[in-house]
Specification:
The protein is of the alpha+beta class. It has three helices and seven strands. β3 and β4 form a beta hairpin. The longest helix has 13 residues. The protein is globular, with a radius of gyration of 13 Å.
Length: 107
């Protein structure tokens, strides 16, 4: 089982009622970012990023599982555009890809 990171506007990603990232906002990000490629085989909100990276939208958050540091950097960029943060499964926040590298969550 992998470890998820999410782009969220909530203080706690699983309690985001009232501060969701809308599907319309997510599609606007996809449409405006040439580095993101829609991946309809994996769902209507799934995208590919780079060679192995991917992101998906679910219940008001954008997520991925076990990302590489380059993917975390992209998540941080997307989060900034959405006035959001990047948060892990256990509620910890990530401000840089280096934070993810140093995280004990990956071991």
């Amino acid at each position: 089982m992998g470890y998820d990171l999410r782009i969220t506007r909530a203080v706690e990603w699983d309690r985001n009622r009232g501060c969701e990232i809308t599907i319309r906002e997510w599609h606007a990000i996809i449409d405006s970012d040439p580095e993101l490629s829609p991946d309809p085989m994996h769902g209507p909100c799934a995208v590919r990023y780079g060679k192995k990276g991917w992101f998906d939208w679910f219940e008001g958050n954008v997520f991925t599982t076990d990302p590489e540091p380059v993917d975390v950097t992209k998540m941080l960029s997307i989060a900034a555009r959405l006035t959001a943060t990047v948060q892990g499964d256990d509620g910890e926040y990530y401000d840089t890809a280096n934070d993810w590298r140093r995280s004990a969550r990956r071991s």
